Amino acid sequence: MAPVPTNRLTMTLDGVDVTPQVSRAVVTSEETDRDFISFADAAAGGGRDYNLELTYVQDLADGSVWDLVWSHAGEEVDVVVRPFGNLTPTPTQPHFIGTVVISEGDTDLIGGEADASATARFTSEATWAFVAKPTKVTA
Description:
Blueprint: E1 10-13, E2 16-17, E3 22-31, H1 39-43, E4 48-57, H2 65-72, E5 76-82, E6 95-101, E7 123-130, E8 135-137
Antiparallel strand pairs: 1-2, 1-5, 3-4, 4-7, 5-6, 6-7, 6-8
């Protein structure tokens, strides 16, 4: 498998390509802080929580990532992360799929710091929990 490039990642949310709206997309894993850990979780080394962390442009249009946060917090949405940007997954360039729960989180929802650039845009950040560990798809 080749190293993952930093300029090819593409992503869909609920089947919609959101790549132009996203400048940072990271799938994270951390030890769970849940009070209940099953014997199966314990046997596998402990419970894990998986999250999708995003930085996205504040595009207020219907159907944008911002609109998902504003209008659909608490709902589940399917996500496909393609680290290599390829449309068809392969063993050397897999996709990662799962379902996340949309959350507002603690972020600037509208506005931000001034910038003299005519091309700069306000951004927001989100951390959305996966309902289960994402699946690696190779074919």
